[in-house]
Design goal:
19 strands, three-stranded antiparallel sheet, alpha+beta, globular, disordered C terminus
């Protein structure tokens, strides 16, 4: 025991022994009198810390097990319809004090002081235990030590993430921080009330309070590795000589070495034995030129950072013919969702995109630009939110169909009220169904026609916005100057 009467763990082995003792047991086995409910988002972690490990919750900036430098964290996972499991949400770490973090170094940061070594305790989250801690069971664990040799690649990437966050703070750009700016380590908003503000680095600006967090995709990889008997990892994109360079730099430099920007797409496909007519031709070719056995999206780094590659074809005149489609959305589920819990929001608040741009020179396509882009929060919480909200309002009021018209060849077209090309500079909605018979159930009968189903729809990132992204090489600070708008949505 220490001066706070906390249980003392002299070695890592003693801490792991207590962890292993807790596995497979309901939390009720560690609680005599208390019948805790979901007090707050960190409530279960505090409960485990106090009742399983005997360490009282406190607001100190130190790790929970001070003498070992280990912080105890819990992470819930959900069982998906296909039987697989996936971590439920990001892992929130230490709070960010803008004044302190804006004038320190990575090694002296609050993140390094508190969060370098994590004892991660995984439990299955379900409707049965969402409000009752006592039903939860810790199923497995992982002791993640960032300074270990096995984590050296993670360390270099996390350093880059921290430096990006630090630079925005030091430059008084806290308002421009987005979770999707970075790869593994992010700066997430801390307050559930969007109106809450704290003092920024310069002592004047009022900005959103934030905390460091590990992205859900990063924790999910650690979770899946903890389930693997041999601890096997996915194929790695990075080699030792790549450490310290960004993903985009590594990819671009490697492609330059094999002359990817000097030969036509057709010639490259022939050289690397890729079927030029295949839908996956660009992805397959890119992976082979990078020396990968599998797809770049399946590499360890891209899975941890939640990066997805997207191919963009630019015509000789600079025009991009195709907008970029995403998943079909479920009409009924959309009406039940809050904005920040919707799949649409999560896709663009968490995911980053590798834009692989090919340009036509009049004879063939050539690799033109490759960079990583993320949707800035300033766009996500204004323009994108408005498209989502308008879509939800239309579905909730049964106002989907606006009328019908006939084409010159006599075909009948059903018109709808969903946001179209002229309604937003960022997104529009149109079908992605196999055909007009590929429909989904409506949450409310359509007022005009009485229909109870409608052709499946999806969100499309507009080709004009994509063109602007490419022109600015994915630099959101520059892009945003064309789309200035204050965030006016209410957190739902």
């Amino acid at each position: 025991m220490n001066e706070n009467n906390d249980r003392y763990y002299p070695t890592e082995e003693s801490l792991i022994k207590q962890t292993q003792y807790s596995l497979g047991k309901k939390m009720s086995a560690f609680c005599n009198n208390e019948t805790p409910q979901n007090r707050n988002k960190g409530g279960f972690g505090q409960f485990v810390q106090e009742n399983v490990f005997g360490i009282k919750n406190n607001s100190l900036p130190d790790p929970d097990v001070i003498n070992l430098g280990i912080e105890i964290k819990t992470a819930g996972y959900k069982r998906l319809k296909n039987g697989s499991t996936s971590i439920k949400e990001r892992l929130v770490l230490s709070d960010i004090n803008y004044r302190d973090e804006g004038q320190t170094t990575f090694e002296k940061s609050s993140f390094c002081h508190k969060d370098l070594n994590l004892l991660l305790l995984f439990y299955e989250y379900s409707d049965d235990n969402s409000y009752d801690y006592l039903r939860r069971i810790i199923s497995n664990y992982s002791l993640y030590k960032l300074m270990d040799q096995a984590s050296k690649e993670d360390l270099e990437i996390i350093k880059q993430d921290w430096e990006l966050i630090h630079q925005k703070i030091a430059n008084n750009q806290e308002a421009n921080i987005s979770e999707s700016d970075t790869n593994y380590l992010a700066a997430c908003t801390k307050s559930q009330n969007s109106s809450v503000r704290t003092t920024g680095f310069n002592g004047i600006n009022k900005v959103k309070p934030r905390a460091y967090c590990y992205k859900r995709s990063f924790i999910n990889k650690i979770f899946l590795e903890s389930l693997s008997a041999n601890g096997s990892k996915a194929e790695s994109l990075l080699k030792d000589e790549d450490l310290g360079h960004s993903f985009a730099e590594v990819i671009t430099n490697r492609l330059k070495k094999v002359g990817a920007f000097d030969y036509s797409f057709t010639d490259l496909c022939q050289k690397y034995s890729v079927n030029v007519k295949s839908k996956q031709a660009v992805s397959t070719l890119l992976s082979r030129m990078l020396g990968l056995r599998g797809n770049i999206n399946s590499t360890d780094e891209f899975e941890k950072a939640n990066i997805e590659s997207k191919t963009i074809r630019i015509e000789e005149n600079g025009f991009i013919e195709q907008s970029m489609s995403f998943e079909n959305f479920d009409f009924c589920n959309l009406c039940k969702q809050k904005w920040t819990e919707s799949p649409f929001y999560k896709t663009f608040s968490e995911k980053r995109f590798l834009f692989v741009c090919l340009k036509n020179n009049g004879q063939d396509y050539y690799f033109y630009k490759i960079f990583i882009w993320n949707m800035p929060e300033s766009i996500l919480n204004t323009y994108v939110y408005e498209v989502w909200k308008k879509t939800r309002d239309i579905l909730q009021t049964g106002s989907v169909i606006s009328g019908k018209k006939q084409t010159k060849d006599g075909k009948e077209i059903v018109l709808n009220n969903f946001p179209g090309m002229g309604d937003s500079p960022i997104f529009h909605i149109r079908p992605k169904g196999l055909n007009k018979k590929d429909v989904a159930e409506l949450p409310k009968r359509d007022k005009l026609t009485g229909q109870t189903s409608f052709t499946k729809q999806c969100y499309w990132l507009k080709n004009t916005y994509i063109r602007k992204i490419i022109e600015c090489d994915g630099n959101n600070d520059v892009i945003n100057t064309f789309y200035l708008k204050s965030s006016n949505h209410l957190d739902e």
